[in-house]
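Subject: sequence -> structure tokens, single chain

Hey, anyone have a minute? Need the predicted structure for the following. Not urgent.
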Amino acid sequence: MARFPPEFVGTPLGNAFERLRARRVAEARETAVTAHDLALACDDEAVAAWAALALAQADYQDAAFASAIRRALDVQARAEALDDARLGVEAALALGSGFWRIGDSETALSVIENEIDRAFRLGDRELLAALHRVLGVTLSEIGGHVAGVATLERAFGYALESGVPQAICECANSLGGAIYASCRNADPDAKADALANAEAMIRTSLDVATEEGDLPAIAAAESSLGAVIIERGDWVEGRLWTARALEKTQASGDLLSEGESLASLAECDRELGALDAALASLEQAYAIAATQQAKPLLRRVHLQISQTLERAGRHADALTHYKRHHALEREIAADIAEQRARMSGLRLDRERARREADQFRAETRELTDAVERDSLTGIGNRRAFDRALGALLSQGDARCTLALIDCDHFKAVNDRASHLAGDRVLQRIAKVLTQASRKSDLAARFGGDEFAVVFADAARDEAANVCERIRAAIEQYADDGAPAVTVSIGVAAAARATPSSG
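Reply:
Had a minute. Here:
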């Protein structure tokens, strides 16, 4: 998170992204809102789009995942309109991360996978690390442990290449977590090796975070370390690491992580027989989840309350919370379906708008062609010639050459061979001019039997050589049954502006 183009460094928008990296979310949001509103007032769509991305990332850090998804979808549309590849990848990353956090792994995978190739073309190692991290974590969560670990290993490699401490911390911690998750059903020896590898990666994350003084990253690593130690069956030491993580999440103000740490602490207390302490922690976690409207955390809390009450012999109360746990599962599934529908609807709207824009451009081109094309010869007319030459000369220091071509004794062709034959002669000349011209040049019928070629970015000698080939080709051309003709050609180059001596 918090990657942004270098031209924003030192600007209010750049400051918003820097505050996001430092997890000062409230300050970042306020700055991003101001930057967004000012950009809209100044019709600066690029700045407004990047500011909208900052707001999506602020929503994500505040655990407002539904809002983050909506904003990211909007940023995707803006990035497409601006043809900004980097903004498009960042928007997709925010979108995929949001779907991952609400539990919609399938959509998260599809969104992220579609952006990998574009991210490679951008060549930003930190961005590649972030994309592969979300992809790897999502694969691991849906049971693709081998692919998840392999993807996270690539993410960690990209993070090391980027040299960004925050990226290294996040990828090392996620890799350790994926290794730990992959060994839960393994045989004892394989599980012991996997947990050792997981602990090594998480301690790497902890070392880097400690060196950087990154409190949220330290808390995340300590929480993961506690989970690994608990998986070994050591509830006492696992509780110590979880309590350390809880202390730091409370200090950093990360409410969602605090709620998750409280739930983990409650699990340790339950297994250690301290049921009252477990229920007290779960009560705090419930309050945080309700305030944050974090349904996945609420679901986890209700399940743990049910398990703790059952351990205490309060079976009726345990059943009530177990039912609430399942009800939340249904609500989360409905939320996921709603977000998918919203994304599909917005993409359909964008596709419809794109088709309408393409149709408008095609109709505009057709209208322009009709207005600026000579009906007899199919090349440009006098209007097209005036526009093209004017556009080149308005550049001030234009390097272009003009050739005027006149059909010799054309009136005699009309008088002796008919006007139909004369038309075929004009079409022949136009065909030769089109074949001799580059895409950047313009061949036009200037009027009657007079033609012109505007050679863009060509010196007089270069244009003269082309014109000699045109003259010879017209003189030798006799495949259309019309009389042979010759042409006279004059060539002039645009005069370069000379510096004032004053």
